[in-house]
Specification:
This protein has one domain. It is built from ten helices and two strands.
Length: 264
């Protein structure tokens, strides 16, 4: 999510038994641990440090085969991320997963899709650019690092633990009904509606080394983000109504305005 709230099932997230509540909390903690490890690995994978597989490694397969595999992996992630976020899918999921574990299940599935991408990604060689002078190279690394920090900071402004399912699991464990977060727009949310996505875009594109595989990865994820925003904002309008419509009219989507609108 990118607005400072999350879409959640309105039911009270309470299990009837102590064992059930403990199970939901343990499940939430495991899912969060998997996410955290995946997020840290993603940084190394994209930047090219401290991971056995990297986005910009030398080519290891024929170009056509590598392209097909990589597009398949990116499609798998996009479909999982989008389908599981739709309200209709959530209603079906509640038949087998308690609402208090819904978000944790989404986080786990997203992490597993990324792990598959890391494991089976095919480097493609063909350097597009490789910035060698030390000053601009360091500057690009720093800009990319700021992108990752913006991603993480944006989740905490939303409520990091709610976004990744821990708040729901904790409230369930304590037997407290869940209440969705109210809509608010702190910090960077006053400049753009989706600072989390801005962070991803910076992290993927601000790199001193851009191979063909990296370019395909950044391009497809950019297209996915632009499409996903349309579905996400439709859901947010359904949830918040005129409040979100007014916010959308007032604040740009991804690029902050460098000037203020004149009042009539």
């Amino acid at each position: 999510m990118s607005i400072c709230t999350m879409q959640a099932h309105p039911n009270q997230f309470i299990q009837t038994s102590r064992a059930g509540r403990v199970g939901v909390l343990a499940y939430g903690l495991v899912c969060y641990a998997v996410f955290l490890a995946t997020f840290l690995y993603a940084i190394g994978f994209v930047v090219g440090v401290l991971t056995p597989t990297r986005l910009d490694d030398p080519a290891a397969a024929p170009l056509g085969k590598a392209l097909v595999i990589n597009l398949g992996l990116l499609t798998l992630f996009a479909l999982q991320h989008s389908i599981m976020a739709r309200p209709a899918f959530k209603r079906r999921l509640h038949r087998v997963v308690p609402p208090s574990a819904e978000r944790s299940t989404y986080v786990l599935a997203s992490s597993l899709a990324l792990i598959a991408l890391f494991a089976f990604w095919q480097p493609m060689g063909l350097m597009i650019w490789n910035v060698q002078p030390s000053t601009p190279r360091v500057a690009l690394y720093m800009l990319g690092g700021l992108g990752w920090l913006l991603v993480l900071a944006s989740t905490f402004l939303i409520n990091h633990f709610d976004l990744f399912g821990l708040r729901q699991a904790w409230l369930c464990f304590r037997g407290i009904p869940y209440r969705p977060l109210i809509m608010k727009t702190p910090g960077p949310y006053r400049l753009v509606r989706h600072p989390l996505y801005v962070g991803w875009l910076i992290a993927f594109w601000a790199t001193p080394t851009m191979t063909l595989a990296h370019f395909v990865f950044a391009l497809i994820t950019t297209v996915y983000i632009l499409v996903a925003i349309q579905f996400e904002e439709r859901d947010l309008i359904a949830e918040h109504g005129e409040s979100y419509r007014a916010y959308r009219r007032r604040v740009p989507m991804l690029v902050p305005r460098l000037w203020r609108r004149r009042k009539n």
